User: Fold this.
Amino acid sequence: MTQSEGRAPSVVGAVVRDGRMVWCGSRSMIEGHAPDADTQYRIGSLTKTFVAVLVMRLRDEGLLALTDPLGRHLPDAGVVAGELTVGQLLAHTSGIASETPGPWWERTPGDLRPELADVLGDDPVKHPAGSRHHYSNPGYALLGALVERLRGMPWGEALRAEVLEPLGMTRTTLLPRDPAAGGFAVHPWADVMRPEAVQETGRMAPAGQLWSTAADLARWAAFLAAGHEKVLSARTVAAMREPAAPPEATDPDDGYGLGVQLMRRRERMLAGHTGSMPGFLAALWVSVEDGVGALALANCTSGPKVGTLAADLLEIVADAEPGFPAPWRPAPSLDAGLLDLAGPWYWGTAPFAVRVRASGELHLAPLTGQGRGSRFHVEHDGTWTGLEGYYAGETLRAVRREDGSVSHLDLGSFVFTREPYDPKAPVPGGFPGWR
Assistant:
């Protein structure tokens, strides 16, 4: 239906479940000549998710912080852009213009804009930094240049070595490689079409240059859901999926993380990205909770709603064939000290429970349904860091007495005790007891 109603020369769709492609289908204007999972399409702004992963790798290696001003690492950014932070650029909250100064970068050769100043212009900032979400293609040109500066090589080479090869994505490239679909512009009022030119966009390539296939993007969907030990940890990828920019008032169900688009569809939160370049449309979504992802690709400039198609494919599978939960398994070994933390605790008079997972994570939850809870990830120093909600990023410590027994839990200065208002605890301390 998407191919027919959208008047697209071809459309490819695929579904990913539990980390692998489980279905791929296509439809074409040429009977008996439909594309398959190995046919390349240009993926447009899906490229930004790849650039964001390269930046997050730099962050995890300690080569930069998301709060760093860009100019600290990229002097060529100029005075104005150099004051913007890396995190703001990733989340499109830098306030930089959506597009370059003319001519239209998607339809002109990149050698017309050889320097970063050429993609920014004289007045690049349209909003105060951090004040709102304002999608910026030049912002990702800056991030690509940042990767090149810190890696000492073109960003495409860094992408191939650090990301594509470890994930087995051999059919994702900067320029098309056969078999590849041709891109077309379909006349809006007549059933005729013409080919679109393929431009090499130079400095703007990090905003939308890549070509890929359904098979490769299925691997990418699996990565965006769970990470990969050779590329980025599951924890870092999860942080990329967290909202980092406020939604626009006109699209309250849409948000943006760190290089990742977010969309709430009914009760389901989807993460991924859409993309377009002259002659091509692309979309990819994952639902981590369902363990399902889906993608759609088309080779026309406009018409088919590939974002909706990908979301529909995901939803159909997740609703019609919900996955089985992973089987419970006990921890092969567990620090005995963790067992001292398990069980009921009180914040003042409010009862909570701490459960210790096989992974070593802690789960704090109110027993009455009222109050704040969170999962906590163990750190190297023996503390735990909150992963969600009010306690996200906050530190949980087990405070022990001289004999090694646990006195209380300290969570961002909140004290949890084994008894309601334990008189032996430091806060409130000296509580006279109950009558």
The first helix runs from residue 2 to 5. The CA atoms of residues 114 and 139 lie 16 Å apart. The mean pLDDT is 93.
